[in-house]
Amino acid sequence: MSLTDITTRSLVSILAVVGMSATIMEQASAGKADVVGVDVRKTGEGQYHFSVRVRHDDTGWDHYADKWDVVGPDGAVLGTRILHHPHENEQPFTRSLGNVRIPDSVESVTLRAHDKVHNYGGMEATATIPR
């Protein structure tokens, strides 16, 4: 093996590591998904409609906000809005979910967002249930 072969292999290895590091840094820079706004309205007996505003620096299909949840005070998930694609050019964005059943005993719920890399952990919001 010549010195040129060793140098070429070393350079290829270094470039591979740099490329992986750039991808990891890009994914990490998007941060966690944050709930930045919520509107809730009663639509029927025990049923509610939620419009939730989410902010996340989506970087593509590998790292985007992929859902948000309505969570009761006991931790039970009362509703989930699945987000089927990245919103790279629409930040923050608002999506709605209707027909969420909320028990009469629940006075407020928590809204939390999820992303494909960090899962949960961003800013959450609390909404008072209108009666």
Secondary structure class reads alpha+beta
Rg value: 21 Å
Number of structural domains: 2
Strand order of the largest sheet: 4-3-6-7
**Stretches where pLDDT falls below 50 for ≥5 residues?**
10-29
CATH top level of the largest domain is Mainly Beta
> How much helicity do the residues have?
10-25%
Shape: elongated
Main sheet specs: 4 strands, antiparallel
First-to-last CA distance? 79 Å
Helix/strand order: HEEEEEEE
Strand-residue fraction? 35-45%
CATH superfamily of the largest domain: C2 domain
What's the count of strands?
A: 7
The CATH architecture classification of the largest domain is Sandwich
Number of helices: 1
CATH topology of the largest domain: Immunoglobulin-like
Please, what is the average pLDDT? 83
Can you put this structure into words, describing what you see?
This protein is an alpha+beta fold and 131 residues long. It folds into 2 domains: 30 residues; 97 residues, Immunoglobulin-like. Helix content is 21%, strand content 41%. The chain has 1 helix and 7 strands; from the N terminus they run αβββββββ. Strands 4-3-6-7 form a 4-stranded antiparallel beta sheet, with no helix packed on it. Strands 1-2-5 form a 3-stranded antiparallel beta sheet, with no helix packed on it. 23% of the residues are buried.
